[in-house]
Design a protein that fits this description.
two-stranded antiparallel ribbon; mainly beta; binds zinc ion; elongated; two-stranded antiparallel sheet
């Protein structure tokens, strides 16, 4: 082990091992990790679906309006 100026001891954010700062890298989630714990960001994190306006639905079934029932002295009156 040789002395390298400008490096310091650091702890890996994942495994907790102590390494020199030159052996660690910053990961996509802002964690400083060793080479064993470094991983690229998953490609599906960059997949975006187009907004709904650009791909309208072929058909829909909207929820019907609610029917309120009012009960007055035992009689049932249906209001629409
Ligand atoms: Zn590690």
């Amino acid at each position: 082990m040789t002395l390298k100026l400008g490096q310091w001891n650091a702890i890996c954010d994942v495994c907790g091992f102590k390494l020199k700062s030159g052996k660690m890298r910053k990961r996509w989630d802002n964690m400083y990790v060793c080479d064993d714990d470094w991983e690229p960001r998953h490609p599906l994190d960059f997949v975006r679906t187009p907004p709904d306006k650009e791909r309208p639905l072929p058909w829909t079934r909207p929820e019907p309006y609610p029917v309120y029932v009012e009960v007055v002295e035992g009689d049932i009156i249906i209001e629409e």
